[in-house]
Structures are given as C-alpha cells and as structure tokens.
Prior knowledge:
The chain is of the alpha+beta class. The chain has two domains: 3-177, q2cbj1_9rhob like domain (Jelly Rolls, Sandwich), CATH 2.60.120.620; 182-222, DNA Excision Repair, Uvrb, Chain A. 33% of the residues lie in helices and 34% in strands. The protein contains six helices and 17 strands. The chain has helices at residues 11-21, 35-38, 51-65, 68-74, 182-200, 205-222; strands spanning 3-5, 26-28, 41-42, 44-46, 76-79, 83-88, 92-96, 101-105, 108-111, 114-119, 127-128, 131-135, 138-142, 149-153, 157-160, 163-165, 167-177. The strands form four sheets. Strands 1, 2, 4, 5, 6, 10, 14 and 17 form an eight-stranded antiparallel sheet that branches. A hairpin with a 2-residue loop joins β12 (131-135) and β13 (138-142). α5 (182-200) packs antiparallel against α6. The radius of gyration is 18 Å and the shape is globular.
Amino acid sequence: MLLHIPQILTPEEVAEFRRRLEEGDWTDGRETVGAQGAEVKRNEQLRDTSPLKAELGDAVLRALRRSPLFFAAALPRRILPPRFNRYAGGGEYGFHVDGAVMSLGPDEQMRSDISCTLFLNDPEEYDGGRLVVSDTYGEHVIAERAGDAVIYPSSSLHRVEPVTRGVRLASFFWVQSLVRDDATRRILFELDTSIQKLTVDGADRDAVLQLTSVYHNLLRRWSEC
C-alpha cells in the first residue's frame, strides 16, 4: 500500500529540523548499504553515531505517535530509529530494494515490512529528487510537502531521481508491522477507515460496533505479536 500521510511534522518543527541539520555531521551514504546498493547510491547521511541523528530521530518517533493515520496504515510493531539524508549536486539513488532484515542492535533484528520517507523541504526547493516507487501498477513519482510522509511496501523497487538544483532533505526509516502481508494490511486499513467515517456520520451504533468487532477479530487472527 502506497499512502501519503500529511503533516507528520508541523511547519515549526520542520524549520527547527532544517536549522539543526545545517550543523549535521554528514557522511557518504554508501556506508550504510551493501555492495550492490553502493553501486547506485550517491547521497549523504547523518552518521549513525551522531547525537543529532538520535535527537531528531526521537523527535520523528514522537511526531509519528500523533498520527492516527500512520498507525492505522502501518500497525507498527517495531520502527528502526529514523535516519536522515541529503541529496545535492546530482546525488541520486538508483533502483533498489530495501534489505529484508535490519539490525536494531547487537542481538536484535527486525523485518522490514514498510519503508517511509518523511520530507523535510518542499519540492519547489530542488529539481529532480523525486521518489519513484515501482509496483504492479507501474511507476509512481512522489514529491510531497515538507513535514509530509509517504509509506510503501519495503519489497517495492524504488529510486530517488538525481537532484540537479538545490538540496533535498528527508528522514527515512523502516517499520516491522504487526501484520506482515501488505494486502492484508490494506484490508484492515480500509475497514478501519470505513468504521471511522461511519462513526462520524452517525451510522447505526450496533452496526458500527459489529464492524469494529470484525476489525479486531481479523487483527487478532492476522497479527504477529
């Protein structure tokens, strides 16, 4: 499921992130990928050991907790600590697929079900730099507003087009969902969305309660805890 999630960060938070990232300890983005990824990746990232990365990453996680839409769509079980990247001067990331299993520490790993890009500047500030996600319906070209995020299955081929003017800033991270299968997550998300709309519209209370029961029983059947 490819989904745009608006306003994860407020404009004030975006401005603060931008100001702090100007002080960032940026390094070659190829340091965090394998040999195959390094062949097509040309960008910069905050070092994984950077205190600024940890501080801003925690701020992203707090912001995500404010988004019911993110939680309804992702059903997160684990989230890899957010990272930050910068593309400029022709920087790009060619078509690749994200690693299936990622390290949370020396003795802890997580499966990557969902990839997320959180945009930190508006698309008018740079040329190129579009996120391109390829799936069975073709290629989707994405460039959202600062503070907005997009999520998509980590199994998808995707790339970032070369940035030919300006700088593209973003945070990115991966989610292990309570529900492994993307199609199953979509069913649950659409059911949850329908329940919320029926509630707002004042639908029959007993019918909404029954649908809510169906949602939770399906989640109970399909979730991995």
